[in-house]
Amino acid sequence: MKKWNYQTHRYDDYTVPEDWKVSMYETDMEKEINCAECGKLMKYGESLTSQRIFGDSGVFGYAVCRECHESGLKERISMKTVTKEQCEAALGSISDAIEEYCLVVNKDVYGRLEAARDVINQLIEEHEKLEKAHKKLLSLWGEDLYAWRGETSQLLQDAGFEDASKYLDAAWEL
Ligand SMILES: [Zn+2]
User: Fold this and answer.
1) Distance between Cα 42 and ligand 1 center (Å)
2) What residues does each domain of the chain span?
3) More confident residue, 111 or 70
4) Which residues have beta carbons under 5 A from ligand 1 (an ion)?
5) What's the gap in Å between 81 CA and the centre of ligand 1?
6) CB count, 10 Å around CB of 99?
7) What is the dihedral of CA 36, 40, 45, 48, to 10 degrees?
8) In percent, how much of the chain has pLDDT > 90?
9) What is the pLDDT of residue 82?
10) 32: CA distance to ligand 1 center in Å?
11) What local confidence, expressed as pLDDT, does residue 174 receive?
């Protein structure tokens, strides 16, 4: 079992007490199981999918009670605000790096540009619906910086980061 950490954007190891009967899927809706987060007993048919606790593949969520499901959703949504700030911070370092890049092309600046790009890629990756577009973005990097800029700008807008997108456009004009 793994627990998604909304702060680090990584999975942490997760275990439940041995006597808990946790589950990802049952055919019997009446079967009694424990919530994978708080341990509360419930019928499988009453459970919802966890936003935090996943199987080792990281694809399927464990069954949890309504309270744990809702608190997980809230955490997920509240983290989006932080994500936007992180995104803008990454764009800030991209703009600084681009500015320097225009003055003097060296490995140092390129390294910073790449580091900032990694942050943006990671954040965009979390928006599942943008996954396809994200692959295109990855393939553009190193091939055509201007096309990458255009795609990134569009992705940010689609993801609701309008301000960040405008910031990137403005930074590019430096
Ligand atoms: Zn629970």
Assistant:
1) 9
2) 2-64, 78-172
3) 70
4) 35, 37-38, 40, 64-65, 68
5) 25
6) 12
7) -50
8) 30
9) 47
10) 13
11) 46
